[in-house]
Amino acid sequence: MLFRKIEKTLKEHFASECNKIMVVDGARQVGKSFIIRHVGRELFENYIEINFVEDSLQDKRFENVRTIQDFYFQVSMIAGDKMKEKKNTLIFLDEIQTYPHFLTLLKFLKQDDRFTYIASGSLLGVTLNKTTSIPMGSITVVRMYPLDFEEFLYANGFHESAIDIIRQHFIKRKSLDVTTHNNLMNLFRKYLLIGGLPDAVNSYLKEYNIVSVRTIQNEIHEFYEVDASKYDLENRLKIQRIYEMIPSTLENKKKRIVIKDIDGVKGKTFSHYQDEFDYLIHAGIALEVKAISNPTFPLIESCGKNLLKLYLNDVGIFTGILYGNNVHAVLDDERSINLGSVYENLVACELKAHGRNLYYYDNRNNGEVDFLIDDYENLSTVPIEVKSGKDYTVHSALKRFVENEDYHVKNAVVLSNAREVKILGKIMYLPIYYVMFL
Predict the structure, then answer these.
(1) Which residues of 324-362 are buried (b: 16+ CB within 10 A; e: fewer)?
(2) DSSP letters along 149-205, please?
(3) What is the model's pLDDT at position 229?
(4) Strand partners for 23
(5) How many CA atoms lie less than 13 Å away from 347 in the CB half-sphere?
(6) For 10-31, what is each residue's pLDDT tens digit?
(7) C-beta of residue 348 within 8 angstroms of C-beta of residue 358
(8) The sheet that has 116-121: what strands, in order across it?
(9) Alpha helices, H only, 296-339
């Protein structure tokens, strides 16, 4: 079974006797149902799972349920012998976005407090955005992502003690030995190909077959597009067009979405496609990185919406689109292939999985920096530059950023393939795998 960090979060939630129902949000196929099922069966003597998608395709028992009494009655017909006490009974409402009214009903189920509940949804971000009566005082929403690089290391046999040693090297700003570095870089490059979707990772660990992995990734990529047609019929073609544009856009120098390329019509602005962008972002299948021209802490106060970068939610899907079954472009680090966009996509996934809001620096006079994150300790910002080649010390925009006294920068980070950790002034050079600890 794959190690997932969210397992600890779930167990802590149930142990805390929190007065809110946890709702696990996330894109399709990131492992939400599996980990909830695993924890639920481990901790609760009576585990009841209700999948609303299956219900909607079969008996539709819960389609018109609007009261807690009707809900209990319907549950009793499929699992009445398991409806015991709150401390030993967990009811898992899976794919809750299928019946949006249940998001409101959660409030009353919690007030009644007869059983323990948890819910999940593949398009919950979209559903919550459209739900008029969100019981925010009764639910706590946790977003789940594909496996990050640390979880990928666990899947490939790394022990917790080994991860802790690597983490201590990061904390002390020390370089790893050559052997460990090469081992991590080998797994890092494989992670670029495999990504973090659980089915793809499990397939790799079972067969070590890139064709099988790519088949899974392609199917999930297509599922994401199909979901758009199911949940937003009016705008599905525009949503699909924007989603399909992401890989080619990331291969451009600026990497930002060009509005006129969506429909091929001049004169339209970002606001014309606000709903489409919101869908991709709230559905969890694209990660937004907002532009900042004057970086002041906190970054959310100075971000712009008209210059937007979008990354795919899984780097394995991205490399599959770019390189298909050919692994040499990534594994052999061929000079003719620029992996800059691939490295950036991975860093975006890592930072997002660690709970960071994503921004980038865009200034007409000073250039661009790949990522900005808030520095809460120093009430400033941390600029991050991602380098896939050997010229990782060349970064004129980052240099100007750090030297600008108005920005009050304390620390900057350059991530690259280089093994040695170096600190030159305010700029810290780190091996790319240390991103798992940022």
Answers:
(1) eeebebbeeeeeebebbbbbbbbbbbbbbbbeebbbbbb
(2) HHHHHHHTT--HHHHHHHHHHHHTT-PPPHHHHHHHHHHHHHHHHH-S-HHHHHHHH
(3) 67
(4) 119, 141
(5) 31
(6) 999 999 978 899 999 999 999 9
(7) yes
(8) 46-51, 89-94, 116-121, 21-25, 139-143
(9) 315-323, 328-331
Token pair listed for 92: 């898992």
Q: Among 208-212, 271-275, 347-351, where is mean pLDDT lowest?
A: 271-275
Give the per-residue pLDDT at 131. 67
Q: Considering just the CA atoms, what is the radius of gyration of the chain in Å?
A: 23
The number of angstroms, rounded, from the C-alpha of 141 to the middle of its chain's C-alpha atoms is: 14
Listed in sequence order, the residues at least 6 apart from 416 whose beta carbon sits closer than 8 Å to its beta carbon are 386, 387, 388, 392, 429, 430, 431, 432
Q: Look at residue 267 in the predicted model and tell me its pLDDT.
A: 79
Contact criterion met (CB below 8 Å) for 17 and 49: no
Q: In angstroms, rounded to a whole number, what is the distance separating the alpha carbons of residues 28 and 217?
A: 12
**Nearest one of 421, 422, 420, 432 to 387, comparing CA atoms:** 432
Contact of 201 with 194, CB cutoff 8 Å: yes
Sorting pLDDT into bands at 50, 70 and 90, what band is 60? very high
The DSSP H or E segment spanning 302 is: none
CA distance 43 to 26: 23
Helical (H) or strand (E) element with 218: helix 210-231
Identity of the amino acid at 182? N
How far is Cα 157 from Cα 162, in angstroms, rounded to an integer? 10
CB neighbour list of residue 220: distance below 8 Å, 6 or more residues apart: 28, 29, 197, 199, 200, 314, 317
Confidence of residue 108 (pLDDT cuts 50, 70, 90): very high
Record the pTM: 0.94
Residues in the chain: 438
Express each pLDDT in 189-232 by its tens digit.
999 999 999 999 999 999 999 999 999 999 999 999 887 766 66
- Tokens 């030159």 sit on residue: 424
3-state secondary structure of 388: coil
